[in-house]
Amino acid sequence: MSSPRTTPPQTPRRRYPLRPPQPPAQIDPALDLLDELEAKAPKRALAVFAHPDDAEFSCGGTLALLCARGWDLNVVVTTSGNKGTKDPEVTSQYLAGIREEEQRRASAILGAHEPIFLGFSDGYVHEDDELRGLLVRQIRLHRPELVITWDGFRPGFNHRDHRNTGRATYDAIYPAADDHLYYVLDKEEGLEPFRPQAMLLSGTRDADYHVDISPVARTKVRAILAHTSQIRGRTEAETIKQWEDRARAARQAGDANASPYRESFTKVLLRR
Ligand SMILES: [Zn+2]
């Protein structure tokens, strides 16, 4: 008599589609990116920045505009900005709490969801597998058609957290988030592979995409001023005057397009 077969217990397997059943309509690079995305895809965006206030200062107008146009916007902040003070009495822990609360207020003013903090220490963001995996998870979770982040490839002076956050986001989008064998534990949460259609890189040198933010300029200022610990008591009027003075000086120096009511990006299209 043969002994009973011993087979290892089988883990129930779930099938994850490697591709959507229908290929989505492709974005025409010759047409306006936001118009194209709105016509052809769900209006979902993810902004990934390094510190509380980065998103508002660098592209708060574009984010406010997306929300005004009915987009679903999530903001990921890789640190809690816990080194951003000159006050010798303030601890990192205390400052993190203050700055997270400021970011919550700013996100609410823009019209975004409650921000997501990854909790890295300010100044210590590494472009590594851990950060990339956390960003892959956010992409699979929120499934944004548009991701806005720092241009991590800009040469010259830059904050390392901006550079590392931008590069890790870029690498999370391609190829990791869309290939199911990367960060396989996401499957346990039912998170499926996903590839956004486009990226806009902020703080860039060779911008090729510009957004007229004049309809939401005041919303941008209010969102910036929500970062009370960072703005040294500036008022709305003072902020706008400072922007206009700076733009006037830039125009006089030869940059004919300089305007406080225009935000500029490098556009990256990702074919599916
Ligand atoms: Zn920053």
What can you see in these coordinates?
This protein has 272 residues and is α/β, with parallel strands linked by helices. It has a single domain (39-269), classed as Rossmann fold, CATH 3.40.50.10320. Helix content is 35%, strand content 15%. The chain has helices at 33-40, 54-68, 92-110, 129-142, 160-173, 217-225, 236-252; strands at 44-49, 72-79, 116-120, 146-150, 198-202, 209-212, 262-269. It has a seven-stranded mixed β-sheet with strand order 3-2-1-4-5-7-6, sandwiched between helices. The radius of gyration is 21 Å and the shape is globular. The protein starts with 32 loop residues before the first helix and ends with a strand. The mean pLDDT is 93.
In brief:
The protein is α/β, with parallel strands linked by helices.
Ligands: zinc ion
Strand order of the largest sheet: 3-2-1-4-5-7-6
Proportion in β-strands? 15-25%
Distance between the termini: 57 Å
Structural class: alpha/beta
Number of helices: 7
Q: What sort of overall outline do the alpha carbons produce when their principal axes are compared?
A: globular
- Tell me the name of the CATH class: Alpha Beta
The value of Rg in angstroms is: 21 Å
**Can you name the CATH architecture?**
3-Layer(aba) Sandwich
Total DSSP E strands: 7
Number of domains: 1
Main sheet summary: 7 strands, mixed
Order of helices and strands: HEHEHEHEHEEHHE
